[in-house]
């Protein structure tokens, strides 16, 4: 094992009028963490400390997102967190150890990373729709930041895409797929500003979310592979022009005023 384990489970509510549903249980078991210390092989890894740290950060992040109304959209629904006790036997003596668990919404979809590096456009999704999805992701990150939290690892491997069901009618076969929802997962290195060290507490709140142009102007989107147009590869200016088209003009009124002068990169 290399870290938290994800298990899909079926939850049966105590309310007999509610239907069972699937959820994702993220289990922070120290015995599933790697004991290998790559930087100092002669020193053991404190896997219990690492597991508890991952759990406490992730649980705090989901609790904050739920409190600020961010779950169920760009973030998964959050159902709660628990600590349970498991037996362990060591040198003939039975002991107890604690294992942590976070229960969140199960996203029945595909990981964006798996669609970024295919030789052909992913699932026939049009370039226009891919850019719409990318814009929604950047907007979601800006609104999450405005809520008082930074996930700190916005990357295709941490984005799940829920697709519309495949066409069943023959006349719809070959029609491009549509992404119904993009969901950001994995919060074990995130920062909740009001719970953070002093350097993060200095984060300045604004009445509206920061404009994604402010957040992503000099950030390369090359990691998104075929999800972005070929002309963007190693071409920051093309990416910046798209940011201006998408989040500038009338669309800018949904965000706080841009705090700096944005200059296009050289061609």
TrEMBL record:
Record InterPro entries: Kinase-like_dom_sf
Domain of life (superkingdom): Eukaryota
Protein name listed in UniProt: Protein kinase domain-containing protein
């Amino acid at each position: 094992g290399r870290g938290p384990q994800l298990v899909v489970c079926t939850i049966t509510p105590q309310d007999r009028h509610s239907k069972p549903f699937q959820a994702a249980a993220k289990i922070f078991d120290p015995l599933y963490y790697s004991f290998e210390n790559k930087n100092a092989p002669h020193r053991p890894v404190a896997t219990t400390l690492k597991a508890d740290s991952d759990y406490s950060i992730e649980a705090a992040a989901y609790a904050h997102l739920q409190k600020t109304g961010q779950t169920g959209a760009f973030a998964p629904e959050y159902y709660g967190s628990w600590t349970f006790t498991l037996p362990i036997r060591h040198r003939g003596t039975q002991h107890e150890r604690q294992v942590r668990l976070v229960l969140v919404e199960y996203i029945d979809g595909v990981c964006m990373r798996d669609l970024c590096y295919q030789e052909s456009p992913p699932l026939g999704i049009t370039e226009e729709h891919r850019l719409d999805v990318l814009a929604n992701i950047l907007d979601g990150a800006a609104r999450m930041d405005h809520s008082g939290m930074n996930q700190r690892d916005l990357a295709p491997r941490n984005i799940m895409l829920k697709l519309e069901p495949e066409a069943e009618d023959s006349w719809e076969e070959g029609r491009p797929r549509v992404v119904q929802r993009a969901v950001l997962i994995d919060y074990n290195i995130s920062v909740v500003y009001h719970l953070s060290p002093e350097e993060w507490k200095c984060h300045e709140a604004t009445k509206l979310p920061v404009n994604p142009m402010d957040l992503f102007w000099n950030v390369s989107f090359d990691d998104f592979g075929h999800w972005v147009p070929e002309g963007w590869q190693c071409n920051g200016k093309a990416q910046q022009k798209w940011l201006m088209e998408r989040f500038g003009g009338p669309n800018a009124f949904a965000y706080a005023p841009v705090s700096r002068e944005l200059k296009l990169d050289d061609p």
